[in-house]
Amino acid sequence: MCDLMPASQPAEKIGKMKKLRRTLSESFRSIAFKKEDSGFDEICVTKMSTRSCQGTDSIIKPLDTIPEDKKVRVQRTQSGFDPFEKPASQVKRVHSENNACINAKSSSAGKESPKLRRHSSPSSPTSPKFGKADSYEKLEKLGEGSYATVYKGKSKVNGKLVALKVIRLQEEEGTPFTAIREASLLKGLKHANIVLLHDIIHTKETLTLVFEYVHTDLCQYMDKHPGGLHPDNVKLFLFQLLRGLSYIHQRYILHRDLKPQNLLISDTGELKLADFGLARAKSVPSHTYSNEVVTLWYRPPDVLLGSTDYSTCLDMWGVGCIFIEMIQGVAAFPGMKDIQDQLERIFLVLGTPSEDTWPGVNSLPHFKPDRFTVYSAKKLRQAWNKLGYVDHAEELASRFLQCFPKNRLSAQAALNHEYFSNLPPRLWELQDMSSIFTVPNVKLQTESGDSIQVCARRNSHGKASSGSKH
């Protein structure tokens, strides 16, 4: 059993404990509520209570029970400011400094460096942009085809003239495959003698191809200068045509629609291949293509006879036809009726083909020997007399106009033909995007018939480059 304490001792001890507890309670109460002496208020007590006085309802007060003048201070405390860590004067100064800092940042945002602003600030929503239909203004209609209309236009972005090829989209048929082909090919072709595709705009109703503006074409140019062009100009036009073709042929691309209307001529004399709607990349090993290509007058006999196995030689026949037309002033083979008539005109000059002159001709779908008159080949100058007035012109034309496709001269080989021997060697050293007219003394001559020398200088290689007088 436990020992019992005397009755007087427990009573004395209980009295001392009550006294001590009362003293402690008054001390805590004094700390909590003596605002004036301690400098603390209910906010401080609330902060203390969250750390060590949880459960003391008389000290913790909800926010909605705090007087209005205290709520502001609570909000500031919650936003990162603690007024009780600094005197009021320092708190005010902190507010001022932070406000000044914020204002400084706001004002400096509008004064950032131009380089930074170019990359970070978006352009105005109303400013014209590439790829938008409203970025171009139509000025006049230039022509209309079966599925597209061409307009002369002006860019609102940079003010430059452009050609707008607006292709109408049929809801049932979708985008014409020719337009897709033209756009996809031209996007990758960058050459001084190929028309430049600037932009593509696609809407629900139309597909617009935006090209560099070139003011005329070879057909219109020849119409303005009937009877044949100045021989030196023919040479420069042909050189540029071969230069552009060599570029695309090296990339396994066939134009397939060479004719004067598709050769643009700038005001400085630059010739540019255009209208790649029928062009296509030559696939290997497949050699089957449509034979419904090339305008009839410029279509080679192998295609007219139904061949679908052709390559870059297809374009080279058209080069020969255009070459003769520039010199003579009339189309080489202007068929007036049908394919039969077109073939007859070709065979009249070049001779009716046989297995001896054209291996494999008898196997072509539309070749029936009994359907054609048998003609013997003639000299080209007998058909086009002006070829005889220009050195090496007849021989070069004959290399293009070969009925047997594999005998036709390539574009690259033609550039090295003797016909061009009087041109400055620098023309063969130009970069793809450099015009031939950047070479000194290379320029178009007037079409008045005056004999004006082109490049009548001795070049740096020591090779005579004087032009022939005609």
Architecture overview:
- This protein is α+β, with helices and mostly antiparallel strands and 470 residues long.
- The protein has 3 domains: 41-69, no CATH class; 135-212, Phosphorylase Kinase, domain 1 (2-Layer Sandwich); 217-438, Transferase(Phosphotransferase) domain 1 (Transferase(Phosphotransferase), domain 1, Orthogonal Bundle).
- It has 15 helices and 10 strands.
- The protein has helices spanning 8-33, 35-38, 42-52, 68-78, 88-109, 114-120, 177-186, 218-224, 231-249, 301-304, 313-328, 339-350, 380-383, 393-400, 411-415, and strands at residues 136-144, 148-155, 161-168, 197-202, 206-212, 216-217, 253-254, 263-265, 271-273, 280-281.
- The strands form 3 sheets. A 5-stranded antiparallel beta sheet has the order 1-2-3-5-4, with helices on one face. A 3-stranded antiparallel beta sheet has the order 6-8-9. Strands 7-10 form a two-stranded antiparallel sheet.
- β8 and β9 (271-273) form a beta hairpin.
- Mean pLDDT is 75; it is low at 1-8, 31-123, 282-294 and 449-470.
TL;DR of this structure?
By secondary structure, this protein is an alpha+beta fold. Helices cover 35% and strands 11% of the residues. It contains 15 helices and ten strands.
| Name of the CATH homologous superfamily of the largest domain | Transferase(Phosphotransferase) domain 1
CATH architect. name of the largest domain: Orthogonal Bundle
Kindly state the number of beta strands.
10
CATH class of the largest domain: Mainly Alpha
Structural class: alpha+beta
Question: The CATH topology of the largest domain is what?
Answer: Transferase(Phosphotransferase), domain 1
- The percentage helix is 25-40%
Number of helices: 15
Our count of domains comes out at 3
Mean pLDDT: 75
In terms of quaternary structure, the protein is: single chain
Work out the radius of gyration: 45 Å
| Strand order, largest beta sheet | 1-2-3-5-4
